[in-house]
C-alpha cells in the first residue's frame, strides 16, 4: 500500500515551529532523473519572520533570492552556503509570511547505493545524511530545485503513520546563528528525534 503524500495544506499552516515538529518521522523522497532516494526525517529547524533576527538578516542579505520565501507554503527554497553546501528549506504559511523550515538530517531508507555514490562514501556511516549539506548531496537536492512543490513528483514527503511524541523530541538552539545575536541564536527551534544516530553532530 502506498503511503499518502503530505498535502500543501500541511505546509500552509501558520506556525513553522509546529510544522518543523510534525515533520519528524515523515519520509522525504526525491526522484532525480528517475533515481529514487528517501530518508526518514530526524532533525529540522524552524525560522519565523516575526521575532527571529536570523531570518530578518537572511531576508536582507539575500533580498533577491529570498523572494523564494514569499510564496504559498509548500515550495522548496534551496540556497548554498560556503559555496558548497545546499540547504533544503520549505516555505511555509502564505505569500505574505516568509517563514520556513530547514530539513537538517534524515535516516536513509531508499536508494542508499545511489546516496553513497553521490557522497563518495564506501559504506553507510552517519555522515551520509546527518547534516543539512550532506543530506542534500545524498538526496540529489540542489538550488536548481528551488520553487518546486514539495508535494510533486521530484520532491515530496510521505506519512508512514509515525507520530513522534513530545517526550521523544529534543528541542534546542539552532546551529550557526551566533551572527544574529544572543536572542535569535538561543531560540529552541531545532527539533530532533531523541537518541537517533542520524541527527547531525552539531551541538
Structural class: alpha+beta
Q: Give me the number of helical elements.
A: 6
Domain count: the total is 1
Give the C-alpha Rg: 16 Å
Calculate the mean pLDDT score and round it: 91
Q: Give the uncertain stretches in residue-range form.
A: none
Gap between N and C termini: 38 Å
Shape: globular
Please report the first level of CATH classification, the CATH class.
Answer: Alpha Beta
Helix content, binned percent = 10-25%
How many strands appear in the DSSP assignment?
8
* Superfamily (CATH H level) name: Methylpurine-DNA glycosylase (MPG)
Structure keywords:
single chain; 203 residues; alpha+beta; 3-methyladenine DNA Glycosylase, Chain A; eight-stranded antiparallel sheet; 6 helices; 8 strands
Describe the model.
The protein has helices at residues 8-11, 16-23, 53-61, 112-119, 132-139, 182-186, and strands at 27-32, 35-47, 75-81, 85-92, 99-110, 155-158, 169-172, 190-193. It is of the alpha+beta class and 203 residues long. It has one domain: Methylpurine-DNA glycosylase (MPG) (3-methyladenine DNA Glycosylase, Chain A), CATH 3.10.300.10. Strands 1, 2, 3, 4, 5, 6, 7 and 8 form an eight-stranded antiparallel sheet that branches. Helix 4 (112-119) crosses helix 5 (132-139). It is globular and about 40 Å long. The N and C termini lie far apart (38 Å).
Amino acid at each position: 500500500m502506498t503511503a499518502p503524500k503530505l498535502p500543501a495544506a500541511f505546509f500552509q499552516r501558520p506556525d513553522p515551529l509546529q510544522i518543523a515538529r510534525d515533520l519528524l518521522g515523515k519520509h522525504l523522497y526525491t526522484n532525480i532523473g528517475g533515481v529514487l532516494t528517501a530518508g526518514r526525517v530526524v532533525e529540522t529547524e524552524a525560522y519565523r519572520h516575526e521575532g527571529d533576527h536570523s531570518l530578518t538578516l537572511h531576508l536582507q542579505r539575500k533580498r533577491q533570492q529570498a523572494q523564494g520565501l514569499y510564496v504559498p507554503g509548500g515550495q522548496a527554497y534551496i540556497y548554498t552556503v560556503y559555496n558548497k553546501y545546499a540547504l533544503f528549506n520549505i516555505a511555509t504559511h502564505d505569500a505574505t509570511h516568509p517563514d520556513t523550515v530547514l530539513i537538517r538530517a534524515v535516516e536513509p531508507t531508499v536508494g542508499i547505493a545511489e546516496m553513497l555514490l553521490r557522497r563518495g562514501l564506501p559504506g553507510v556511516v552517519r555522515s551520509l545524511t546527518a547534516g543539512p549539506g550532506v543530506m542534500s548531496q545524498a538526496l540529489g537536492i540542489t538550488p536548481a530545485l528551488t520553487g518546486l512543490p514539495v508535494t510533486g513528483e521530484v520532491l515530496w514527503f510521505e506519512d508512514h503513520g509515525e507520530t513522534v511524541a513530545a517526550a521523544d523530541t529534543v528541542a534546542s538552539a539552532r546551529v550557526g546563528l551566533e551572527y544574529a545575536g544572543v536572542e535569535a541564536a538561543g531560540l529552541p527551534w531545532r527539533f530532533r528525534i531523541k537518541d537517533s544516530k542520524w541527527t547531525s553532530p552539531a551541538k
